[in-house]
Amino acid sequence: MKKYKVGIIGATGMVGQRFCLILDKHPWFEIVVLAASQRSAGKTFKEAVGGKWKLADPMPEDLENIVVMNATDDVEKIASMVDFCFCAVDMKKDEIKALEERYAKAECPIVSNNSAHRFTPDVPMVIPEINPDHIDIIPAQRKRLGTKKGFIAVKSNCSLQSYVPALAPLMAKYKVTKALACTYQAISGAGRTFETFPEILDNVIPYIGGEEEKSEKEPMKIWGHIEGDEIVNATEPTITAQCLRVPVSDGHTAAVFCSFENKPSKEEILAAWKDFSGVPQQLKLPSAPKQFLHYFEEDDRPQAKLDRNLEGGMAVSVGRLREDTLFDYKFVCLSHNTLRGAAGGAVLLAELLAAKGYFD
Ligand code: NAP
Description:
Layout: E1 4-9, H1 14-23, E2 29-36, H2 45-49, E3 69-70, H3 75-81, E4 84-87, H4 93-105, E5 110-112, H5 138-145, E6 152-154, H6 164-174, E7 176-185, H7 211-222, E8 225-227, E9 230-232, E10 238-245, E11 252-260, H8 266-275, H9 279-282, E12 293-296, H10 304-307, H11 310-313, E13 316-323, E14 329-335, H12 339-355
Parallel strand pairs: 1-2, 1-4, 2-3, 4-5, 5-6, 7-10, 12-13
Antiparallel strand pairs: 7-11, 8-9, 11-14, 13-14
Bound molecules: NADP nicotinamide-adenine-dinucleotide phosphate.
């Protein structure tokens, strides 16, 4: 397969660094552009990141001397150098919206981690195992933007990537009517480490700005369908969420309760999870986990520390399935928030788009 030339917009940030590690030696993608703010532009990547490298694995050596480009001033130049870009920047929402559209209009497809375009009706928000068909909206988006190649595709918020995958294979057959999720979210989701977030030690913080709204609303778009030139959101199930920040470095856990129109047996739920396999598995995309949902029989699993890195941090762990007194069932899920929930999920989406010819 052809190697696609890739840029990372926001390369110096926490998610950008993850992209660097995941894409270094990726079989289909080759990093040719690293871009960030004017603070970093013109410096080598090593100088620009300085002491801000936040990951346990070191910066890939072959990226150290790449000169960082200016993500907002060099749009056309960057677009001419790459087949597509990943984007993860910390800017105001309307600025991100405008920036991503500038890249798309410069014929540079954008695969984004940012939330700015998640509810633009012709921008697909994709978890590749669940709604890969939503990329079929891209021709309609290109028509609106007036582009031949450029478009924007986004991944969803990290919190829901723990519980939406577990509900997904139960939706059509058993019809989930309502779900309640309490999430216990890692500090890397706020771009923090224990060194930069000491107040989280021995503590739980019961508020993460905007997270509960995203956790309740975004699944509706993922379970929506294409109608004409837009994606129409699903209206069921009803989801309610509470999101807490906990002293865990990586890995978002969710305690989930749900009810069904046609209540399945416990064995039927376990079988649906075991058999759940999507387009990424069928196409054998490089980042796809072999088994998307892993069920643990042990009462004390999944645990963030033990299970977040399952299948390269791209699988979702589930455990503790049992009947509930108020809902039909309850269970616990875990996913790695910066791998499956951020850069890894975006890379898997890009692999799907590449396999379907959207970068050619
Ligand atoms: P971060 O560590 O603060 O990094 C921000 C990046 O944006 C840096 O590369 C920074 O460049 C760049 N940037 C800031 N202002 C800019 C400007 N005016 N023009 C161009 N580039 C600019 O943030 P992060 O945690 O990686 O998050 C990035 C995005 O991903 C956010 O939208 C966030 O909501 C989303 N996200 C994060 C996570 C997570 O787990 N952290 C998960 C999912 C989604 P400089 O270094 O030059 O300032």
